[in-house]
Amino acid sequence: KEGRGHFPKHGIKSVKNFNEFVSKYNLDKTQIDIISRLIECHDDYLYDSKKINKLIKTFTKDEIELLYEIQIADLQAQSKEYHYLLDEYKIGKEKILSDYERGANNEYHI
Asked: Which DSSP symbol is given to 108?
C-alpha cells in the first residue's frame, strides 16, 4: 500500500519476535526498550509531519540516526525496485536531524 515490499505493521510483530529472542541475552531494560522502539518504527514512513513530530519527541538524536541506518539497511535487503528510496531516506535523515538540532519540541512542517 505504501510502496513497501512486505506486510503493513510488521514492526509490531517483529517486536514480539524480539521479545522472545531477547531472553537469551543479557540486555538491560534500557537496551531492550531502545531496540524494541527501533524495531517497531523501522518501517514507518517518516515524512508525515505527525510521525516526524512523534519521532523527535520519542527518540534521542543518536536513536534517530540508528533508526535511519536500520531503515536504509532494511531497504537494501528488499527488492532492488525499492532502492530508489535510498536517496529519499538519506535526505530525510539529514532534514530531521537538522530539525532536531534546532529543538526537539519544534513542530515539524513539510
From this structure: P
What tens digit of pLDDT does each residue of 2-53 get? Answer: 445 556 677 888 888 898 888 888 899 999 999 999 998 887 777 667 777 7
> Side-chain half-sphere of 99: how many Cα atoms within 13 Å?
21
Asked whether the beta carbons of 68 and 100 are under 8 A apart, the reply is: no
9 by Cβ neighbours in 10 Å (0-12 / 13-18 / 19+) ranks as: exposed
Using CA atoms, how far residue 90 sits from 61, 64, 73, 107, in Å, is: 15, 12, 12, 21
